[in-house]
Amino acid sequence: MNRKSFLNLTARAGLFFGLAPSMLANKNNETIDKELLNHLLTQKKAQGNAVGLTADPISKVRVGMIGMGNRGSVLIQMFDYLIKNNHAEIVALSDLKQEKVEKNNQYLKTIQNTTADLYYGNETEWKKLVERD
User: Fold this and answer.
1) Is 25 exposed, middle or buried (0-12, 13-18, 19+ CB in 10 A)?
2) Which Gene3D superfamilies does the record associate with it (predicted)?
3) CA trace torsion 5, 7, 8, 10 (10° rounding)
4) Strand partners, 61
5) Least confident of 22-26, 53-57, 95-99, 103-107
6) CA gap 14, 12 in Å, rounded
7) Beta strand segments in the chain, E
8) What is the dihedral angle through the alpha carbons of 100, 109, 64, 70, rounded to the nearest 10 degrees?
9) Helices marked H in 42-79
10) Is the pLDDT of residue 4 over 70?
11) Angle, vertex CA 63, rays to CA 60 and CA 65, nearest 5
12) CA torsion, points 85, 87, 91, 93, in degrees to nearest 10?
């Protein structure tokens, strides 16, 4: 078995075992769950690979970040070099808590010329960030 086949098999097994408990617990939607499982397991695989794929370089990457807890705050600091050297710009921040996005936006003011658009307040607000430019 090669590496690609192994990864494919383990992903399918993980999907099956992840869905199996929900199928047992939800007797009313048993046929829907079986149909979903069958669909997921029989999806067509992507053909080819990305070796040799080329695209024009992006001069400045625009970044939106979702989740401004410890990892999100540290991630902004990791972008420091890219922002200061004009390779990236953080354009949007999202979190459930307003104070977290505002705190991180204040830090952004110290490393880039613009502030980010802020998305906060409910569990679906992040979708607005994803749907934007």
Assistant:
1) exposed
2) NAD(P)-binding Rossmann-like Domain (3.40.50.720)
3) 120
4) 88
5) 22-26
6) 5
7) 61-66, 88-95, 117-120
8) -40
9) 70-78
10) yes
11) 165
12) -80
What the block records as the tokens of 1 is: 């078995």
Provide the angle, in degrees to the nearest 10, between the axes of the packed helices 70-78 and 98-111.
10
Q: Which two tokens stand for residue 102?
A: 């505002």
DSSP summary character for residue 8? H
Quote the CA–CA distance of 101 and 71 in Å, as a whole number: 13
| Amino acid type, 101 | V
Tell me how far apart the alpha carbons of residues 102 and 20 are, in angstroms, rounded to a whole number. 41
Q: What are the pLDDT digits (tens) for 6-29? A: 777 777 776 666 655 555 555 555
